[in-house]
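User: Here's a chain of 263 residues. Predict its fold as tokens.
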Amino acid sequence: MSAQPPSRMTEKDLKALNDAVRRLECAGFAMKAANALGTPIERAIEALPEKGRELVQEATKRALEACLKIALSSLGKSKTSESFDALHKATCTVSGAIGGFFGMYGLPIELPVSTAIMLRSIADIARSEGEDLDDIDTRLSCISVLAFGARSSKDDNADIGYFAVRAALARALPRAAERTLPPALARFIAVIAERFGIVVSEKAVAEAVPVVGAFGGGAINLLFIDHFQDVAHGHFTVRRLERKYGEDVVREEYERTRAKLKC
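Assistant: Prediction complete.
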């Protein structure tokens, strides 16, 4: 018989979970960008021209198609208990600085590079929390971080949190037998792309704001990767604790902490 998981979390793990809740439930990218730039990003998105929206959607789709494979293959097989967040921030910032020179029309070139770096960082964080990067569920969970990091306008008037988005993604997740089939994975990636595209739009608008001239595309990309690193740390902490205590124990404590959260 296998040992039953402990029913009570240690103080250290409770602290880790509290930090994860804050990372997953507090301010999204638009709020962080607005705080940094003093600009109402969400209102500016509504004014984005149709051509701009189409550009964002196409760039998002292309960025997701091959980036996860590239990101994972570059990490190698070694295991580590720490993630190299600062290194990935630096490379993503340089990518944004180069792409920012061309404005929104540089997005199709810059976004796949930034996304690959960001997914590499997400996978690095997953590995630091004990995840096996060869496992298909871990790989899908890495790309799911891009959906957890978005807050859509549809979420505004509902009690939508991390577990609600996770449940929605689980419904879109292909069955185990289908996970090597491109059509099944394409459907899942389409759901991710829909939510990730919201943050890409916020990033594109932030880069188009005149005051950003003083900050540059590099500063926006620094905010961009910092946001998703926060989300990844939160998500993979939750998954690590679920492996230790079971999903029900962690979810109950998560919701209790979320109810008391003051962002």
